[in-house]
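Please, structure for the following, as tokens.
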Amino acid sequence: MDDVILATIEYIPGYRIVKVLGVVTGNTVRARHIGRDIVAALRNIVGGEIREYSELLESARSVALEKLKEKAKKMGANAVVGIRFSTSSVMAGAAEILAYGTAVVVEKAE
């Protein structure tokens, strides 16, 4: 298994956890962009999804997961279970996206 398996559930079907390495996190802080704010304000007037912010958050989640995966690899894990996300405001116009879970070593179940 070359890559780290990521799961929001507490186990991975077909595998068994042989070692728990501990909590692992990955985070990023992202700020809004004035250009996106203008477009978002216009969309807010007419209603509907504000795609600019959805794309920003999707990108931030991906970055947080990649950081989590890299930290898990450094710990010796080949999987992370129980992954969750948290978002918090750091300052006006900036938010932190935090991904966290439990780094584990798994083997194929027999």
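The longest helix spans residues 51-75. The two ends are 16 Å apart (CA to CA).
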